[in-house]
Structure formats: C-alpha cells, structure tokens
User: Fold this.
Amino acid sequence: MADPLLKIPEQIETITVSLNSVWLITAAILVFFMQAGFALVESGMVRAKNAVNVIMKNYCDMCVGAIAFWAIGYGLMFGTSSGWYGSDKFFFDSGKPWEFSLLFFQMMFAATAATIVSGALAERIRFNAYLIGSFVITMLIYPVYGGWAWNDNGWLRQLGFKDFAGSSVVHSVGAWCALAGLAALGPRLGRYATDGTPRPIPGHNLPFVALGGLILWFGWFGFNAGSTTEANADIGKIALNTHLSACAAATGTIVLCNLLRRPVLLTGIVNGSLAGLVAITAGCAYVSPSSAICIGLIASVLVMIGDHLLNIFRIDDAVGAIPVHGIGGVWGTIAVGLFQESGASLQQTLVQCVGVAAAFFWAFPAAFLMYKIIDLFSGLRIETVQEQRGLDYSEHAEVGYPEFQDNPMHGSTPDRPESEATYAGKVTV
Amino acid sequence: MNLQQNEASRRRRLVYHGIRPHLGEKTARKAVALCESEFPPSEPFSVRRLLEKVGTVDPEVPKRFGELFTALITLQTKDGDAIGPDPGSPATPASSPARPSGSVARPAAVAPRPAAAPVTAVARPAMTGWAVVFSKLVGEVDGQLIALSPVNAGRLRAFVQAAIPKVGLSTSARDEMVRWCGNLRHVVGPGLTADEMHKILHQMYLWTLDAIGPVDADRLFGRAIRESERLPEAALFPPRSLL
Assistant:
C-alpha cells in the first residue's frame, strides 16, 4: 500500500491549480462586468438618439471579439512564437484545464481593447462596419502586440518590457485603434464651428456615466489583480495600488479644475479616475502605494491636456477615450521605469518607451488601413440624414426612450407612400 | 422705405411679436390692425394706450396687462430687425402688388426680392396636407432662426439655394424653392413631393447644425415639430416623417 504522505505534494499541486483557476475565472468575470461599465459610461455620454446604438456596439463587439480571439487571436498571442507572432493554438479546442482558464481571462482583455474604440467613434460609424473592425482588432491587431509584450518569446518581453496588466497592451492599443477610426471618420456634424471652435455635445444621462465609472472601477480590481493569474499574496498590493491611483487621479482632477477656475464636471471626474486606473495598470505590481498616488495624480493632469489637444486638432472623441486610454496608457507604461520599487531606471524607461512606440506604430497604421478598407467595401460613416435621425432609429429601428424621447426624428409614418419615404416603412413604432 | 413706413413697420413688428407669444396669432393680428388705425406713424405711440385698446376686443388683455406691457417695453428697446419679421399690414395683403416693397422686413443678408415676382399670376398647385405641414415646419424653423439672428434668414436661404441643384429636385420643386429663397414671405410647399420636402428640410438641418451647433439644432427642430403637430393635418401627415 502506497504511503499517503507521498501524495501530499500532488494534492497540494491540484489544490493550487484549482485555487488559481477559481481566482482567474473570478477575475475574468469581473473584467467581463467592465463591459457593463463601458456601456453605461459611453451611452451616458452620447445624445439620447444614439444611446441604443452605443450599447449595442458594446454588447456585440464583445461577442464577435470573443469568437475572433478564440479562433485566431489567442494563437497569435500565446502560441509558439518566434518573437513576432504565435503560430499554433488556433481554434483552441484541447489543452490543459489551466489553459482554458487563461484563454477565458485573456478573451475578456481582448474584448476590453475592442470596446474602447466604441465610445470614441460613437454617433457616426455604421454598426456593421464597427463590428467588422472589432473582429479584426481582437483577431489580429490586439493579439499581435499582446504577443510581443506577453508571450514568453515576444521581442518586447525579451527586451525587458514591463506591462503588468496592459496599460499599453490593452488600453493604448485600443485607443490608437480608436484614433485611427477617428482619422478615417471625421468629427460629428456640427461638432466644430467653421472657425474651429468646438461645440460641446453633452451626454444625455450623467447618472449612467457615474454608475458606469464605478462599475469599471470595480471591474478593474479583477483586471489588475487577476493579471497575477494566480491566487497569491501580491493581489492585495495590486488592488490597493489600483484603488489609490484612481482616487488620486479623481482628486487631482478636482484640484486642477479649482486651480484653473473651471467647473468640476462629473464627466471630468469619471474620466480622471479612469485615467488613473489605466495609468496604474502597467505598474500596479511593481510600484509602491505612494508611487501609485503620484502616477494617478500625473494622469489626471495629462488627461486634461489630452482633451485640450484633441480640440486643437479637431479630433472628435465622443467620450474622451484617447486621453484616458491612450495618453493614460502611455504615461502608465513609462511610469513603470520611473517609479518601480527597485528604483528609477533609465534603461527600463527607454525599454518602456520602445514598447509605447511599438504600440502606436503597430496599432495606428494597421487600424487606419483596416478602417479604410472597410470604408471602401461597405462604407464606414453613416449618411448625414441618419446622423440627423440618430443611429438608434436609423441603424437599429428602435429608440432608447420611446415614451419621452424628445427626438424630432422619431415618429411613425402611417400614411406616407412607401415610394416617397426614405425611412418610412422600415419600422412602425 | 421712407421714415414713416419704417416707423409703421417697426410698430407692427413690436406689437405682433410682443403679443403673439402670449395671446396667439388672432389677437396679435387684431392688435396690429388697431395699432395701424389708432397710431399713425406721424403720431406718438403708447404701449399702455394700445393695450387698453386691445383690451376692448380681447378680455384676456386686462388680466395679463403687466405681462404684455413688459413684453412690449422689452421689445421696444430693440432694433426693428432684432424684433422679428414684419407681419405685414392688415390693410395691404401680402400678395398684393400694390404693397410698398419696403414695408416688409428683410434682413440685410437676404437677396432683394425679384422685381417682377408675379406671385398672383402663377398658377400654383393646391396646398396638399403634406404641403401645409411642410410649410409650417419651414416657417417655424425659419422663424426660430430669425429670432436668434435676423441674418440667419438670408444665410439659410443662400445655403438652400446652393444645395438645390445637388439634391435632385424636380423642376417644379426647384422653381418653388428658388422662389422661397428669393422672397422671405413666400409660402413654400405646393409643388414638392414628400421626398423632396424631406431633402429640403435635411439641407436646412445641415445648415442649422453648422450655424448653432448640433444640440441646439436638434432642440430647434424639435420645437418646430411640436408646433407643426398642432395642425389638424398633422394627424394624417406627421411632420416627423418629413425629417
């Protein structure tokens, strides 16, 4: 009879894997819940006539993105790699139980990268064109860069690039894809006066924005702490850093607004805290809590500068995704080299800068080319008359608030001849 | 336009635009008529005395005297063009060729009315339900834009005129819109199909977006829709479907 003591290491191993899996799946579910946060933030920040469209994009990009990532993206990112892209694990159907957990967790990250684009391009992009874009982002653009940074053989990782939970891998890549989409699409009608003066287009539901921001914050604990991929003691510090950075960024926004004698806007606070979360994502495991506060504070300044720059260049980012995820991501990635607990390192900072540049020079041109190709074949931007009526009606034939929506374009056309109707007959509300 | 005509026009605008928002079109027209008969341009004009006169034909006026008095006094501080378009003299119908051309308010940016615009000589198609609704919508949008700035009328028309060749209108619709672009008081509507009306309104929307921004443009069109939905015709010809 075998000695039961001999089985103890094996049992410990089994328990460890089980606990790690439980933690990873729990974290993945938290990251999945961030989709709800994105949906609320983004739909709250757009006009009522486009609310359904924005939520639909958030809902559906996750669906097509999951399939694309499972089929191709995961293999490109985590397959056997020469340093540039993985070449196996496509259509992942069999493997160790642990790998299914990892795939599930990474799938949520891929969906997050894709959904960042949704808010920036809101109120003007065709629904189907957007979904094709999301498919390509999660299938190709995100995983290739993710492989460089996170695959054991990725060239950035070999250089020593550190991006713990994805300030660059997830957030910057998503933001650069959004920037490319904005360059291809142009601003919303009337967003800028002929002399270039920006005209505010306030969101229709600020409570949604606040609630969405809090949900994102909640999910971020899974995003960062889950990136340990194991249930170890580090998750406490990671969660604390995540929280402190967001708090510092929100506080920084309040202080900055007061110093500049500007009103303290809810959207500003939410975007400020999100920038803090994005910025700490890369270094949450490598920096001290006091450094996390510094990173968050600086992120709040940068996001305001980023907002200003967008208006100067007439880039109409409907929700502020570029400053929050793009600039916040760049800062957070570089900050790892400056604030890591082992001390500031010029070499590490340079490596971080290489990673930041690689993210931009890969994601932006690739996404721009993709959007141009989509534009060529299926059209990217909706017609002006559809923009007038709102995308809820023109793209989905339904509206978010039928009882009280004060939308001049919404109504039935029971007596108008079909031949004369441009949108009559599409739906009868 | 001589000084007296100018003063008469200014008083008509003042009385019409001061009273109409409070007591409606009918009372405003009556008040304009009373103003013309009781206060010739050569005589001093008194808001208080005018309201007392109007009170004899509309019992609502004494009840809302303070409100109306304030509205008229506020408007009195403005220039003629800033008050709003001239509703026209009740004694001289709009289409009458005998009407002095200068008695109609015309913002500076609007092209002068074609000298020989024989409105009465043209056989115009009857106003269909769609045409009534469209006319009301255009009028409301136009009116609100003019209320924001009188120069808007001319700029809007210039934009629409430039867009006419591009949007694919029939000849009759094109002629109708050209007439509207050249004449502030032209009642637009007959001769256009519902689809053409939609195209014109969309062009107006695009101009409004650029002029006042997307949020205000949606609000302005929303108000125009609500006003148009009060028409009896709106039940069968919903204004929203023209947008």
